[in-house]
Amino acid sequence: MAGSRGRGRSQFTFSVDALGFGRGDSLPTSAQTPSPLFPPMQFRPVPLHAGEEVDYMLALKQELRASSKNLPFHIKAARTKTDVARYSDKYQNGEPKNNCIEWSPDWSRMPKELCIKVRKPRKTVIGAKPQLTRKPKVAAGKEEVLQKLETLEKREEEQHSEEEEDEEKKKQNDEEEEPDADEDYDEEEIEDETDYIMSYFDNGEDFGADSDDNMDEAVY
Amino acid sequence: MRSDRRSLRHVFRETVCVPNSSSAGRRSHHCGGRRSDMSSEMTAQEVRLCGLLLQEHFGDVVEKVGTHLIRSGVLTLRALAHETKLPLDLVKKSLCVLMQHGMCAFGAGRRGPAGPVEYHIICERILHMLRYPRYIYTAKSLYGDTGELIVEEILQRGQMTMSSTVKTVADRLTHNMPEGQSMDYSEVVSAFSRLVETHFLQRCPPMASAESSSSGADNTPLPAVTQPTEPEDHPECYKLPYINLTGQGKRRRSSEDGEADPRAAKKAKTDSSERGDEGIYWQVNFQRFHLHFRDQAIISAVSCKLDQTSSEIVRTMLRMSEVTTPTHAAFTQALSANEIFRALPSSYNIARPILDQYLTLLVDDPMEFVGKTGDSGGGMYVVNLHRALANLARATLESVVQERFGSRSARIFRLLLRKRHLEQKQVEDFAMVPAKEAKDMLYTLLSENLVQLQEIPKTPDYAPSRTFYLYTVNQLPTARLLLQHCYKTVGNLIERRLYETKENKRLLEKSQRIEAILASLQATGAEAAQLTEVEEMITAPERQQLESLRHHINKLDSSENQVDETIFLLESYINSTQAPR
């Protein structure tokens, strides 16, 4: 306390030998630079485990890493078009698109707001709710119309009364038939020997679909 | 002295020593005091590691979304898209991926069921990704190649139906079999059933949401989604669905790749609904695997400390109480010596009195793996699970100190663990280390935060000459600190591996291209001269560089696996000290 200050002048409040150095020793030099980023180690680390088990797990790890890059869960952002929109962009199906998902999750287990168009038209989601981001079909394909007419004709031949029911069903099952038609599409492409290459046909489905959230451009 | 007694009634003040950069992962108040299930309180190191793991497996987009969601806690879809400045569709896709893998969950938001849904990340699931190789290897060792592939498929896809798993695994196995043979579905089904029976696989909890089946308007409020429940709460968690699946795995020919696959996939989709399997998804039961790892750790510790026979006895005891012991129990069910004797594997025909001696040895061992709880039935014995974990964690801490600071520092550390509070003079005496070196070591340990200083004042003014300074080690906070170090280590290892890969990207791509060329040449039957010509396109120094790169990457990967073992041990210990939920 303040009162005892005058007494034993050379008394410190701590015992000097507990500090680790005696009187008269020079203080250790102060640090001039920050401590090194990789300080030299006093003791070398113990070598890693080795053995069959370790090697197998190492191989597993590397395989998993490599294969996870090919799974549809590995999401890559679609490349933003840098300069001019090119004619070939329409036919490059390999590029990931932002508004499609490459696998079909079970939508009943997820909140509705996450629903997004499933990419591969072949993957029919049975009992799917109408997709929120879908735009109404602009124009039906030539083949689809023909096919519908054919089936309608067949049904007309059978029974008149059932025709109306079928038409309604067809409208409801529009989503399912569409991809079915797509599948038959390719088969017909091989079978028919037309001069027209079917894959060049653009049915306008993707028209305007990309600019969903970006309202800067006017839609014609 | 009267003054001493008065002063001791003063409040203890625990001094936390000088913080340094090595403890950057700590929370501000004390060494990582957080519950592991509160995902909103993630330390910086954990967030960094989660980000790196997400990036490795799912790409940059998911990493950005995931990291932001971890940092924010809970967010709605709109808020998430707005804050990450990513297109809404990408955010939706990322959330779908995370939910598929069980890393993200959703729940009714703050505004109740009528408001927007809020999402949050389950961080420990992301950290489990580090351990995938270990899960797969365990499945292989227990259930063979079939079990291994089943677990691998389910891990990679998050959740799958039984029928699709069986088909995929059968196809993969058929692919590896010699020509003409194929894998029957029934074998895969039986392996799947065994995995479910032993609880390694479990059903995904059904969503308790009332789905509006009709296509409502776009602005229909979301169905009342309750929090996804724990899988174990459902009685049918481990019930196999009845599926009508017969057939064999198909060998996938490379020419039919494009056509056959989507058609088969389409067929598979329609088939699964016919098989009666629709909507029943299976996921890996990580907790069960962790119990298995814990048992393995205890058994190997016993075998190292004592001998093989003792470890067999402990293994038998653990096996017998597998189903009866609840998950967070501190010790197994009591087993009588008679039962243990009967249940020992037949290859170990030891006499009954020898078994009793072994059991006595196990009970007397200071590691306290086995405890005696009664005398009926020849003696009732339990395996002390929590104490075993605590001892294993303690051994880990001591080993870390020994390898980093030397055996004398380790001796001081062990001393402080046992004796709790010691003065400097006492440390020097008990550890038999000269004063100056003891001081030096203690201060080093203090600066690394492995040892804490406790002041006990004699007078109210905390005058240094009249205060006791005691050194102490607290096992739990130190374990948390080391766990954060481990997370930081794994993060560093991953970053270093990414750096190494990036540095040598050009070379790696070149070698991949040349391998592809070689493969195609060999497939078309080229001469040896052409092959050597292509091989020579990589020069000798480049080859050497590639070799050393591969060696480095293998080493880094192997280190990650090994650090993960320590992470598992420390995490198990810390979780065992927390009260069961």
Automatic annotation (TrEMBL), chain A:
Biased composition (Basic and acidic residues): 140-158
Residue stretches of biased makeup (Acidic residues): 174-195, 203-220
A GO cellular-component term linked to this record: RNA polymerase III complex
Domain of life: Eukaryota
Keyword Nucleus: yes
Keyword Ligase: no
GO biological process, one term: transcription by RNA polymerase III
Ranges for region Disordered: 19-43, 128-220
Keywords attached to this entry: Nucleus
Family (UniProt): Belongs to the eukaryotic RPC7 RNA polymerase subunit family.
UniProt name for this protein: RNA polymerase III subunit GL a
Gene (UniProt): LOC109068623
UniProtKB/TrEMBL annotation, chain B:
Location of the RNA polymerase III subunit RPC82-related helix-turn-helix domain: 49-107
Record-annotated DNA-directed RNA polymerase III subunit RPC3 winged-helix domain positions: 397-473
Location relative to the cell: Nucleus
Ranges where the RNA polymerase III Rpc82 C -terminal domain occurs: 191-392
Compositional bias ranges of the Basic and acidic residues kind: 254-274
Keywords attached to this entry: DNA-directed RNA polymerase, Nucleus, Transcription
Region listing for Disordered, in residue ranges: 206-274
Protein family (similarity comment): Belongs to the eukaryotic RPC3/POLR3C RNA polymerase subunit family.
Function: DNA-dependent RNA polymerase catalyzes the transcription of DNA into RNA using the four ribonucleoside triphosphates as substrates. Specific core component of RNA polymerase III which synthesizes small RNAs, such as 5S rRNA and tRNAs.
The protein, known as: DNA-directed RNA polymerase III subunit RPC3
